[in-house]
Amino acid sequence: MIFMENYDIIIVGAGPAGLTAGMYAGRQNSKTLIIDRGFAGGLGLEVPLMQNYPGFDLISGMELIQKMKAQTENYCEIKENETIQSIEKTEDGFLLKTRTSPLLMSEESDEIREFKAKAIILATGASHRHLNVPGEAEFLGRGVAYCATCDGMFFIDRTVLMVGGGNSAAQEALYLKNLGCNVKLVHRRDQLRCEHHLQKALEEKEIEVIWNATVEEIKGDMVVESVRLNRNGQEEDYKTDGVFIAIGDDPSNEIAKELGIDLDEDGYIITDKRQATSVEHVYSAGDITGGVKQWVVACGEGAVAAISAYNDLNL
Fold it and tell me: What are 47-91's pLDDT values in tens digits?
């Protein structure tokens, strides 16, 4: 069975950029829909604590997403767990076909829904980058994790390694330490890339950094028991109960490719200052556009994209 619905603006992705775009689009009296293949929030749900979001001295990503989602639902519809099967440009806009995601189901739904839109905003974000080493996939959920907020509680009073050297790795290492984990940071260089205040916090919490080291293999039987580290050219086995990985993200650009949108050399969507892409009436915002990957930047881009879409359709 196929259901058809018409909208002025459809936003793909319900992270900070998508939710903000939905709020701004809806407030301009545009019939707006947000579609996300998972739950609203995306990687924003995994941020343990933020101290740099305006208006909040301290807030978790999950709490902020809950507030943003509730606010956005006053102005537009949000469909979670909805996978886009196809998207195409038509003479009068865009046609999207979707199915319910199999996230909470044993298999994919057979029910197809079709949506028409005059404009599209892509806020598809990014996904966790993998180490691509032996044992990483095999031990996922059995000692290998990408989200300290999600899985940290399972490692209280146990030894874990946090792989990475940027803001996310530092924030998550601090979170694990505060939970009661014995955490060490593994970084491939001799200097961290995270902000100075995070480096200072790591020192104050006495979180050891294993410098100039890369993970070559994750080892164990039923669960993670150790990793093989290459440290300054020398390989050694290091005992650990868990490996948390925070080494960056890859752009979720499948839909952009399907629409033929111009991407940069790293696969991020290229936009102008109005957040417009190379395809008419398609805009983009948030981490999928690369640049400064900060929550407040994503929100700003989402607002600009929504205003630009509205203006192009109505002025």
Answer: 888 888 999 999 999 999 999 999 999 999 999 999 999 999 999
pTM summary value: 0.82
End-to-end alpha carbon distance in the chain: 37
pLDDT tens digits along 220-260: 999 999 999 999 999 999 999 999 999 988 999 999 999 99
Kindly name the residue from 150, 237, 264, 272 that is annotated as catalytic: 150
Catalytic residue (choose from 110, 151, 264, 287): 151
Instruction: State which fold the 2-127+249-314 domain adopts.
Output: FAD/NAD(P)-binding domain (3.50.50)
Return the exposure string of 50-77: e unless at least 16 CB atoms fall within 10 Å of the residue's CB, then b.
beebeeeeeebbbebbeebbeebbebbe
Catalytic residue flag (residue 181): no
The residues spanned by each domain of the chain are: 2-127+249-314, 130-245
Among this protein's residues, is 299 annotated catalytic? no
Q: Give yes or no: 150 in active site.
A: yes
| Confidence check: pLDDT of 1 > 90 | no
